[in-house]
Amino acid sequence: MITHVVMMKFKPEVCDNDIDELEALLDGLPDKIDEIQSYDFGRDLVGSDRSYNFALVSVFANRDTLKHYQEHPAHQVVVKKLGGMCEHIAVVDYRNAPYRQQDENEPDPLKRNDLFRRP
């Protein structure tokens, strides 16, 4: 599995209507591009000096399906829109690490009932 993360810093003149249009375009991609296995995006809520304005996280089976997504005409429409909206875009694509239990005799830590209990 490959996770594709994109963070966007918008130009100062970008308005809410521009972002609404971007969200509509992004929302339609999973229906047009079958290779998308998981897809989520949204606006920054914190607004700190270090914050980007918007982020997208999507998951693909492998590099070939990621490449198909990147080359798909519907994705290219989004890329073109982002080119006019963003002063900076940061991207990382990484291979998902498989989850491993330390020892087969240990209980699965993700299935514990007391994860949020205080000692």
TrEMBL record:
Domain of life: Bacteria
Region (Disordered): 97-119
Biased composition (Basic and acidic residues): 108-119
Stress-response A/B barrel domain location: 2-94
Gene3D superfamilies: 3.30.70.100
Coiled-coil regions listed: none
Quaternary data: Homodimer.
PANTHER family: PTHR33178, STRESS-RESPONSE A_B BARREL DOMAIN-CONTAINING PROTEIN
Protein name listed in UniProt: Stress-response A/B barrel domain-containing protein
Lineage of origin: Bacteria, Pseudomonadati, Thermodesulfobacteriota, Desulfobacteria, Desulfobacterales
